[in-house]
Structure formats: structure tokens, C-alpha cells
Amino acid sequence: MSPYLGRDNVYPSNRRLGFCVHFTGGQHATVQPFSDEDASIETLSHCSSFSDTTSVADEGGEANEDAAEEDFQYKLKGFIDSTVDKSAKTRQGALDGLKTAMATRILYEFISERRMTITDSIERCLKKGTSKDCGQRAAASLACLLCIQLGSGIESEEVFKTLKPVFKNILADGSANIQVRQAVATSLGLCTLVAEDDIMDVHATMECFEGLFTRSYVKEDGTRPAMGPQTTQLHTNALLSWALLLTICTASQLKDILHKHLPKLPMLLESEDVNMRIAAGETIALLFELARVMDSEFEFDEWDDLCDKLSALATDCNKHRAKTDKRKQRSVFRDVLKAVEEGDFQSESIRFGTERMTIDTWVRKRTYDAFREFVGSGMNYHLQANEFIRDVFELGPPMLVDSATLKAMKISRFERHLYNSAAFKARTKARNKFRDKRVDVGEF
After folding, report:
1. Hey, which family's this protein in (predicted)?
2. pLDDT tier at 60 (50, 70, 90 boundaries)?
3. Which of 142, 113, 111 is nearest to 125 (CA)?
4. Residue 148, number of CB atoms within 10 A of its CB
């Protein structure tokens, strides 16, 4: 029996983490996942024990807060144990519970100690089957959140080294569940960005993505390939992951990519699928931005034709397209057209806590969108407290804010608690580094 299912098979305060654990016949646990509504960090109703932790800390001090944290970690251990349960429903609930916890809290110390156990669980879930989704999509997403929690380094490299072959096998398996392949295409891209340690391996992964989305290119005879919406979505996800990895390519790799793909990518602007058209447009804008960074005088032979296509999409009034699709498309392609014609970008300011971050390039936008897809509404918290994500966006270490300023910030009591917790950990880490340096000097 697993140690996580000890203590007479009783989980303390089952409702406080926002999930229920039901035992049937004294053997198996059924973990009910967080709902989408529950997953909102604004209301934070999904994880009532998180707010319980705050209220207990306010009233009872450090001892009670430590007890609440221990209770929370015990429930996380239950989730980890349930990821290998025989019941697909139980595995799904456990995976969803871990995903929500990692998206809304910084759990580096807890996860670091158990990273290979969690990795093994993810690998088993990914290999459970091919024709049906038996928690594979959730497992693929959890792999990304695990890498985001661990950051870029040896630990995430170990995780990715185990999971990368599994991801690539699923991606190449035409008989696998198409929605699982879609999820893997997205997860493989972000995991590669975070954890891949060799730029040539990055390029090899990009070639895997190319093998998918290039199937949507117009054929040599001028005809468009016939494919269903799910296959088109797979190609769209592959294109977006490929675009994400463009942001870390070397100059020589970018030159080859520009020569090979920039003349063909505009073909995807004619796709019947609005998501594919938008992904293609944003990727073209990203390529132009990167090309102009390398060469401010960059020119594209088919520039006029491309601008005509982009202008038509920015003012699309096609009656057979849905109004929401046209509205979304016009907004995006106005920005893409400016990027291609003028090298301009419509900046966006994002506020989190007492800080602001400006999304002022297509590189930064593609990176921000990729992380936000996995952490969701927890993105602002990760921007405040996750050292790895702060490093990616060049925000520096987490800020230390005094209590008066925190009270003046219009955020919930729970968010103030998280901010204080993150700041305390950052300060402790900095002090430990300083102490280590003093010890080193003494020994020397």
C-alpha cells in the first residue's frame, strides 16, 4: 500500500482543497477534479483551503499556518498517489487537482523532492492508450506545469529527457487520439522552451512540428488539402509551438527558416479555419520582427502580395463567416499588417500587484501567450512570485513590499498572503546565498 493512502484511508478536511475523495470498498479513491469555474484565481473558490490557510494564519499565527500547509501538502500527496489508480476517473481527477495547484501556487520545494515520482506518473498516464483519452491531455499539461515550477535547469532537463520520447511518439502516431495529439503538440513546445539544453535538439523538435503544419500548405497543383477541423487544430497547435521555438533560434537557423518557410506561410492565410489564419498571421509578423532584428534592411520579394492578403483579412466582410470570427480576425490582422508594413507593434501593459510589464514585441507576446495557456488566471501570481517566469520576462527577483503598501493594493486577502509568502521565500533564499558566501570565504 502506498504511504499516501495510509492513516486508515482517511483524508483530513476533504472539502477544504476544493475536491472530494470517496473510497469504495476500502480500496480505491475517486478524486473529483476542480471545475473550470472553480479554477478562477479571482474568486479562488476552487481551492478553499488556500484561503483557509490565510484566515488561520491571520488568527492563529505561524503554528496554525504550518498545520494548514502540512494538510495541503498531504492532499497533494494523495493526488500524486491517485495518478496511478486503475480508475480513469480517479486518475483524471488527481491530474486536474495537481494542475490547479501548480497553476495557482509556487510549490518548488515540494515538487523538487518528488519530481521523478510525478514524472513517472505522467509517463504512465501518457502511455495508457492511444484510441481514447485516458487522462493523457491532462498529463501533457501537467508536464508543462511541472517544468514551469522547476524552472530552467538540471531538474527540468531530467523531467523532459524522460517525457520527450513519449511526446514525440504520440505526435507521430496517426492512430492516437487526435485531441491528445493536439495537447501534446502544445506541451512539447513549451517544455522544449523551458527544459531543452541543446539548440540542435530544439531544431529537431521544430522539424517534428514542421512535419505537421506544412501538410496544410497548398499543394503544388494549387489545390488545398482536404482535412477535418480536428486535424486543422492539430496543425495550428504545431505551428504555434514552432513559432514559440523561433524565439530562441540562432541567427543562422533563422536565416534558413526565413528562406524555407516565409514564402509558403502566407498560403495558410487562405485556410477555412479562423484559428489557423490567425496563427499563420501572428507567425508571419514574428518572422518579420526577427528578420529585421538581424537585418534592418530586410526585404521580402512577395511583400506586396502579402500586404494585400493581410489587408483583406483585416477588413474581411465575408458573409459566410461567423461575426465573432470576423471581429477577432480583423483585430489581429490590423496589428499583423502594421507589423509587416511598418515594423510596428501594438503594446499592451499588464499589471500584477505593484508592478507592470509591457508586451511590446511579437516575441514577448508569443512567449506570454504560451505560458498563460497553462497557468491561466494564475499568470499574474506567477509573474509576481515565480523566479523562472520573472527571469524569462526580465523582471528581476520577486519584489519585497511592505505591509502598508500591500494593504493599499486592491487585491484579496489571499493574494496578499501569497505575495508575502513569495517575498519571504525570496528573502530567505537571498540570505542563505549570502551565508553560503560567508562560509566559503571562511573556509578559504
Report:
1. Belongs to the IFRD family.
2. low
3. 142
4. 24
How far apart CA 203 and CA 221 sit, in angstroms, is: 29
CA distance 112 to 152: 13
What average pLDDT does this structure show over 309-323?
A: 81
DSSP letters spanning 39-58 = T-TTT-GGGHHHHHHHHHHH
Please report where in the chains the cell 477535418 appears, as a residue. Answer: 228
DSSP string, 185-254: HHHHHHHHHHH---HHHHHHHHHHHHHHHGGGSPPTTSPPPP--HHHHHHHHHHHHHHHHHHTT--HHHH
pLDDT in tens, 368-418: 999 999 999 999 999 999 999 999 999 998 886 555 555 555 555 555 556
Return the closest-CA partner of residue 217 out of 254, 255, 270.
270
CB 136 within 8 A of CB 177: yes
Q: What is the pLDDT of residues 197-229, one digit of tens each?
A: 899 999 999 999 999 999 999 888 778 888 999
Between CA 126 and CA 114 the distance in angstroms is 18
d(CA 327, CA 339): 19
- Residue 351, CA distances (Å) to 318, 360, 389, 409, 411 in order: 37, 14, 15, 12, 12
Mean pLDDT over the full length of the chain: 81
The pLDDT confidence band at residue 29, using thresholds 50, 70 and 90, is very low
The pTM score is 0.78
> What is the arithmetic mean of pLDDT over 234-238?
98
Amino acid code (one letter) for 307 = C
CA 182-187-189 angle, 5° bins: 105
pLDDT in tens, 98-141: 999 999 999 999 999 999 999 999 999 999 865 576 789 999 99
Closest C-alpha to 58, from 412, 422, 400: 412
Most distant CA pair in the chain, distance: 77
Strands (E) across 269-410 are located at 348-352, 355-359
Residue (of 183, 180, 205) closest to 192 by Cα position: 205
388 contact partners, CB below 8 Å, separation of at least 6: 148, 150, 151, 152, 194
